[in-house]
Specification:
1 helix; globular; OB fold (Dihydrolipoamide Acetyltransferase, E2P); single chain; alpha+beta; 99 residues
């Protein structure tokens, strides 16, 4: 297989793995504390995340799957989100403002 084809397949595989999609399960809720658009990170205050055995309320810094997900977010916004581990790092895979 040509290198160009292999790179395209690899890129598409990564995109499908982290692309935004509808919440597969009940989303987590949180409050935006800080947005770092340049580094593709967001600081969230949220409750427990059982799939990672995180108990109690906490504030954490997360990477986002795509920095464009941070556009329009500001401290104080209430959000719904989903997270997963991507390359061993906690990563927001879906985020939307709560109404």
């Amino acid at each position: 297989m040509k290198l160009k084809s292999m790179l395209l397949i690899g890129t598409l595989s990564i995109y499908v793995a982290v692309m935004p999609r509808a919440f597969a399960t009940e989303p987590y809720v949180g409050e935006v504390k800080k947005v770092n658009q340049a580094e593709g990170k967001v600081t969230l205050k949220h409750g427990p995340i059982k799939k990672f055995d995180m108990e109690g309320d906490m504030t954490m810094i997360y990477r986002v799957a795509n920095p464009s997900m941070l556009q329009g977010l500001k401290p104080g916004d209430h959000i719904r989100f989903d997270t997963d581990k991507v390359n061993g790092k906690f990563t927001i895979t879906k985020i939307e403002k709560s109404k």
